[in-house]
Amino acid sequence: MSGPRIYLIDDQASIRHALGEMLSVFGFDVQTFESADRFLEIADTAAPGCIVADVKMPGTDGIELVGELARRKLSLPVVLISGHADVPMAVAAIKSGADDFIEKPVDDVELVAAINRAQARIFADEDRRRAQEGLSQRLERLTAREVEIFDLVVQGYTSHAISEKLAISIRTVESHRAQIMEKMQAESVAVLVRQAIRLGRISP
Amino acid sequence: MSGPRIYLIDDQASIRHALGEMLSVFGFDVQTFESADRFLEIADTAAPGCIVADVKMPGTDGIELVGELARRKLSLPVVLISGHADVPMAVAAIKSGADDFIEKPVDDVELVAAINRAQARIFADEDRRRAQEGLSQRLERLTAREVEIFDLVVQGYTSHAISEKLAISIRTVESHRAQIMEKMQAESVAVLVRQAIRLGRISP
DNA sequence: AACGACCTCCGTAGATCTACGGCCTTGGCG
DNA sequence: CGCCAAGGCCGTAGATCTACGGAGGTCGTT
Question: Tell me, in Å, how far CA of A122 is from C1' of D11?
Answer without folding.
Answer: 52
